[in-house]
Write a structure and sequence with these properties.
CATH architecture of one domain: 3-Layer(aba) Sandwich
Helix content: 25-40%
CATH topology of one domain: Undecaprenyl pyrophosphate synthetase
Order of helices and strands: HEEEHEHHEEEHHEEH
CATH class of one domain: Alpha Beta
Structural class: alpha/beta
Shape: globular
C-alpha cells in the first residue's frame, strides 16, 4: 500500500481557496487597532476642550462624586436646538441620563428629550428628576420639566430650580405613544373634524400636521440631533414624522460608558454636518 506524504492541515473554503494565514490575520488586526488609536488621538488634539475656556463649578452627586460640566460651545458654527438621547435594548441608567441634562444646559442646548421603545424612561421620569435635584444647577440657570396631560403638554417649572435670566433647558420624555400612535390619533381627530365640517379637506396640509404635532408635544421643535449607543443605528419608532432632518450620531457602545468628552465630540461632528435639501 502506497502511503501519501504528510502535509500540515489547512482549512479550505468551498471554492477551494486556502483560509488566510493566522499570523497575517493577527497582524492585520494589530495594524487596524493602531490606526484607530492614532485617529482618535489626532481627533482629540484637534478638538478644543471646553474646560480650557470656561469652567463651571462642579456639582455633587449623591455619592459626592465631582464632575466638570462642558463650557458653552461658542466656537462651534451651530449647536442643536433639540437633542434626543435614544436608548435601544439596554436598560436606562437614570443618574447617567441626568448628566446629559447638565451637559446640555452648559452647552446651551434648549431642549433635551429621552426616548426608549419600551416607554420605561417616561414611566419612571421621576427617577431622572430625583437625580437632577441631588445636583442642583448653579447661578441663574434653570431646568424646566415638560409635563404632558391628555390635552397636550405644558412646562412644569420645578420649584427647586432657580429662576432668573440665565440659561434654560426644557426636558421631556418620549415613548412610542408619542410617535406612530400619536400620528394615528391626530389622523382620527382631523378625520372627525372634516366629517363634522369643522375643517375642510382642502385645509389639511403638512403645515397643519406640523403645528398640531408640535402642540401635542408642548410646542417643542423637531429634533436636530439624536444620540444613540452601540453599533446599530435604529430609530426604534422615535417620532417618525419629526425626524426628517435629524442627524443620528453614535455615542459610545453603552450608556454607562458615555463621557463628557464623547458628548463634546458628537457636538463637533454635528457642527460639521451639512444638510442639502432638494427643490
Amino acid at each position: 500500500m502506497k502511503v501519501k506524504p504528510h502535509r500540515p492541515y489547512t482549512a479550505e473554503y468551498d471554492n477551494g481557496q486556502s483560509a488566510p494565514n493566522l499570523l497575517v490575520y493577527l497582524l492585520w488586526l494589530l495594524v487596524h487597532k493602531l490606526v484607530t488609536i492614532v485617529e482618535q488621538l489626532m481627533q482629540s488634539l484637534r478638538q478644543p476642550f471646553f474646560s480650557k475656556r470656561i469652567r463651571i463649578k462642579a456639582h455633587q452627586y449623591a455619592e459626592h462624586q465631582q464632575q466638570q460640566l462642558p463650557a458653552p460651545v461658542s466656537k462651534l458654527s451651530k449647536v442643536p436646538k433639540h437633542l434626543v438621547v435614544l436608548l435601544g435594548p439596554e436598560p436606562p441608567l437614570y443618574r447617567q441620563l441626568a448628566q446629559f441634562i447638565f451637559w446640555s444646559l452648559a452647552a446651551e442646548i434648549e431642549y433635551v428629550s429621552f426616548y426608549d421603545h419600551n416607554g420605561t424612561i417616561k414611566r419612571n421620569c421621576e427617577e431622572v428628576k430625583r437625580c437632577v435635584r441631588e445636583a442642583p444647577v448653579e447661578g441663574k440657570d434653570r431646568i424646566v420639566w415638560l409635563e404632558r396631560s391628555g390635552s397636550g403638554a405644558e412646562a412644569d417649572d420645578s420649584p427647586r430650580q432657580p429662576v432668573g435670566s440665565g440659561r434654560t433647558v426644557v426636558v421631556g420624555f418620549l415613548s412610542p405613544e408619542d410617535g406612530k400612535q400619536g400620528l394615528v390619533s391626530l389622523s382620527r381627530s382631523i378625520g372627525e373634524s372634516v366629517r363634522r365640517r369643522d375643517l375642510y379637506a382642502a385645509d389639511v396640509s403638512i403645515e397643519l400636521l406640523d403645528s398640531r404635532l408640535q402642540a401635542a408635544l408642548g410646542a417643542v421643535p423637531d429634533p436636530d440631533l439624536a444620540l444613540y449607543f452601540g453599533d446599530v443605528c435604529s430609530t426604534y419608532g422615535l417620532l417618525p414624522w419629526q425626524i426628517r432632518l435629524t442627524e443620528f450620531l453614535p455615542l459610545g457602545t453603552r450608556l454607562r460608558d458615555s463621557t463628557e468628552r464623547e458628548f463634546v465630540r458628537c457636538l463637533h461632528r454635528y457642527a460639521k454636518c451639512e444638510q442639502r435639501l432638494g427643490t
